[in-house]
Structure formats: structure tokens, C-alpha cells
Amino acid sequence: MAVVRDLRVLLRWGNFRRLLAVRLLSQCADGVYQVALATYVVFSPEKQTSATAIASAMAVLLLPYSLVGPFAGVLLDRWRRRQVFVHGNLLRAVLASVTAVLMVSQVPDWLFYVSALCVTAVNRFVLAGLSAALPRVVDTERLVLANSLSPTAGTLAATAGGGLAFVVRLAGADSDAVVVLLASALYLCGALAALRIGREVLGPDRALVQPRLATALAGTSRDLVAGVRHLTEPPRRAAARALGAMALMRFCYGALLVMLLMLCRYALTSDTEDGLALLGMALGVSGAGFFTAAVVTPSAAGRLGPARWIVVCAGTAAILEPALGLPFATVPLLVATFVLGLATQGAKIATDTIVQSSVDDGFRGRIFSVYDVLFNVAFVGAAALAALMLPPDGRSVALVVMVALIYGGVAVGMSRFSVR
User: Which residue ranges form the domains of the chain, and what is each CATH number?
Assistant: First the structure.
């Protein structure tokens, strides 16, 4: 199988293997933690969940980070990335344990959300660092291949973590706090795995490293302006266009995710346990789509080019999403999750490659942090719009059609740029 052969080629690079181990453990823990939050917020029997409540939770967890994300990117270009992975995962292990305590305590909801917000903020910091460090552990010739397999393997690990959380929860765990403690243990393993990487291997270059916090923050605004200017330079405009396209596709994903949560909670099942099981199945099918994207993207992007591959992914989603989504039936929706998983991950692999190959190493950290901010803002904006459009059971023809039109617009826009 080609993907196995490609993975063997990459695994010959020792530092790539070690960085991949950090990614797999970190994102597996993310999957466990996020599913625990979802089941606590959406599927608790005592909670009458609405689309507005889901959108509010997403806003609380993601928007504050969007305000500080670019500043984190500056630090990511000033601190040793290996140390970011070690300390970031240790911090998340502690904060996840705090979340577990709050889940079983009689505390205000806002305190729970603050704890979850802190874990999510560090999570985005680590993910941006993983993407920024990848060109340091493989050569340029294999960068597309690494971008196909490494982030996709991380996404699959997150999906597997979510599946593990579902299994633990449905197997009789007394509360979601037990699942969160499992995530804490996995974060700790991720920190230990990062210690196996040399301190200087992942960059940035020694001349850029500023170990003192005050020194690193002193030029934050100036560095952010420099990063944006770097992205608007003619050789980097392809990266800017790809980021814009990916943000719109993320918007579509966020709107459809809220709809899926509401359908699983109210329309497609009769009780919360069945809804939870159906959501777990949908995530598993979506993970299969991510894996398929990792298999087909290297050859497809190699033949078409990354920009044209984004066109294919968005165009496919524009056609199949309404065809499969409008019946609002279980089997077509599961097929749709596979298609959208493939399209979204395929476009993301292409976007990562365009950004990494267009952006200088000294700017990658802050650019990938801006990348995450675009993701978060688009995701929360989509959730807010879905909250306004969705009826109580989650069935909305208008939302499905709107998302299809956005996918079509991305395909048309990127096709014009790729022709130029």
C-alpha cells in the first residue's frame, strides 16, 4: 500500500519519528478531552441543550484565544519549540485535572469554562508549534508527504482519542470527569515524549531564541506587523489565498457540526445514550475520511498542484453535501461525514504545504497561530449563525444549502487563482 511505503520513508528520519510521537499523544489527549466536554455540555441528561448553548460554549472556549493567538505566535518564533511541547503538555495535564475536579463539584458554569478555555488555548499553541517545526525534521523534497501524513495521523489520533472517550463513557464510567483524567494522563505522556527530542532540533534558530518572557514580548506588536507584511508579499500571496479558502471551509464545518450535534441529540435518536453512540459513529466515519485524504492527497496534489486540489475538495463538498444532507437521515449523514472529512482534510494538507513552502522559518510560528485564529473565528461564527438558523431538532434546509453555496464559492475562487 502506497501510504505504508510513504510512511516508512518518513520514519527513517529519527527526529520526524519523535515529533510524530508527540503529535499522536497530544492529539489523542485532545480527542479524549474534547469528547468529554461535548458529552458534559450536550449529552448530560439533566441539560436541555440548544444550538445557542452549543454556540455559546464554543465562543467561550475559542474566541478569547483568538485575541491572544497572534501574540502566542510571536513567542513560538522566539522560544525553543521543543520546550513549548514539554511545558505545554505538562500544563495541560494539570489544567485537565482541574477540569475533572470542577465537573464533580458544585461550581458556577463560568468557572468550568475558564478551565476548559485554558486547556484549549495551550492546545492551539502546541498544534501551531507542531506545524511550524515539521520542516525542521524532513527535507524540502518530502515536505508535501510529511504534511499529508503527519497532521492526518494527528487527526486520526484525535479521532481515536474521541472513540476511546466514547468507549470509556459508554462502558460505565460514572462521570465525564473520569474521561478527562484519562486525557490528563495522555498529556503527561506527550510531555515525556517531547523530552526525547534535542533542545535545538526544532528551532527556531539560536539567534532568534529569547528565553526571557519580558524580552520575547517586548517587540510583539512590531513582529506581528512584520508577519502580516511577510504574508502579503508577492511570493506569499498563494499562502494568504489558501488560508482564506481554508477559513471558509472551516466555517462550513462548524455550521454542520452544530447541526449534527443537534440531530444526534434530538432528531435521529430517542435518548441521550443512543445519541452519544451515533455521534461516536459519525466521528469514526469522519476519521476514515481523514485517513483517505492522507492516502490520496500526495498523488493528487502532486499531479494537480495544491491549489487545484483545494478546488477539487471544495467542489466535491459543494455537490455531495446537499445531496447527502437534505434527507436528514442517518445513513446519508454518515456518508456525508466521510465525504466532508476527506474534503476538509485534503484541503488542509494542501493549505499546510502552501503555507510552509511559502513562509520563512522565522515567521512560521506566528503565521500558523494566525492560521489557528482564522480557524477559531470562522468556527465560532458558523456556530453562532447555526444557532440562529437551526430549529430545536436541528433540521434546516437553509443551512445545508448555504454551506453548499460557500463550498462552491471557494471552489470557483481558488480555481481562478490557480489559473493565474
Answer: 2-419 (1.20.1250.20)
- As a dihedral over the C-alpha atoms of residue 415, residue 418, residue 419, residue 420, rounded to 10 degrees, the angle is 130
Spell out, as residue ranges, where the chain has pLDDT lower than 70: 1-4, 6, 43-50, 60-61, 63-74, 172-174, 205-221, 223-224, 369, 418-420
What nine digits make up the cell of 95?
489544567
Cell matching residue 35: 469528547
Closest CA to 311 of 155, 149, 419, 150: 419
Cβ burial 16-49 (10 Å sphere, 16+ → b, else e): bebbbbbbbbbbbbbbbbbbbbbbbbbbeeeeeb
Identity at 288, one-letter amino acid code? A
Residue 48: per-residue pLDDT: 58
Q: Max alpha carbon distance in the chain (Å)?
A: 60
Q: Are 156 and 293 in contact (CB under 8 A)?
A: no
Angle at 301 between CA 297 and CA 303, to 5 degrees: 125
What is the CB neighbour count within 10 angstroms for residue 66? 21
CA dihedral 275→278→280→285, nearest 10 degrees, is: -160
Q: Provide the terminal-to-terminal Cα distance of the chain, rounded to the nearest Å.
A: 35
- State the pLDDT at residue 314: 95
Q: Prior bond to 151 cis, omega within 30? A: no
- Find, among 372, 79, 63, the residue nearest to 223 by Cα: 79
What is the rounded distance in angstroms from the CA atom of residue 239 to the CA atom of residue 391? 38
**DSSP letter, residue 175:** S
Cβ atoms of 406 and 314 within 8 Å: the answer is no
Q: Let me know: does 86 contact 202? Beta carbons within 8 Å.
A: no
Let me know if 313 is exposed, middle or buried by CB neighbors in 10 A (0-12, 13-18, 19+): buried
Give me 161's grid cell. 482519542
Cis peptide before 70 (omega within 30 of 0): no
What's the CA gap between 407 and 344, in Å, rounded?
11
Supply the pLDDT for residue 208: 54
Q: How far apart are CA 221 and CA 223, in angstroms?
A: 5
Angle between helices 361-389 and 51-76 (to 10 degrees): 170
Q: For residue 386, what pLDDT is reported?
A: 86
Are 364 and 356 contacting, i.e. CB atoms less than 8 angstroms apart? yes
Cβ neighbours of residue 378 closer than 8 Å, sequence gap 6 or more = 247, 248, 250, 251, 254
Measured between alpha carbons, how far is 6 from 11 in angstroms, rounded to an integer?
Answer: 9
Verdict on whether the full-model pTM lies above 0.90: no
Give the type of residue at 362: G
